């Protein structure tokens, strides 16, 4: 596996998320946009706050996983499933570069095996 390429991909993604998260939290502070005294406008502003909060939260979660993946790259355990210790499928790593478990365990974590094929 080309760990250099994987690392570069993770770092790029991390930068992308960090810049998105920081611009979203700047919006949340309302520094240049104090809450309007008009009630209807306040409601609209609160709704968009919730959307921003959700973006922030999923970005934060993804950032956490990317950090963990970078640590596993350093430790040499990047492609090893943390649940069962088996190698993670290469196709899965290509699709989700920060995943920490194999397809079988990921399916198991989502509430039991899926319908047999
Ligand atoms: Zn596994």
Describe this protein with a few key phrases:
66% helix; 117 residues; binds zinc ion; mainly alpha
Structure characterization notes:
The protein has 117 residues and is mostly helical. It has two domains: 1-77; 79-117, no CATH class. The protein is built from four helices and no strands. The radius of gyration is 19 Å and the shape is elongated. The model has no long low-confidence stretch (mean pLDDT 82). The chain binds zinc ion. Zinc ion is lined by residues 81, 83-84, 86, 101-102, 104-105.
Domain module count: 2
Distance between the termini: 30 Å
Structural class: mainly alpha
What is the overall shape? elongated
Q: Give me the Rg, rounded.
A: 19 Å
Identify the bound ligands.
zinc ion
Overall pLDDT score: 82
Report the sheet with the most strands, covering strand number, pairing sense and barrel closure.
Answer: none
Helix content: 55-70%
Helix count, per DSSP? 4
Poorly predicted ranges: none
Total beta strands: 0
| Fraction in beta strands | under 5%
- Quaternary status: single chain
Order of helices and strands: HHHH
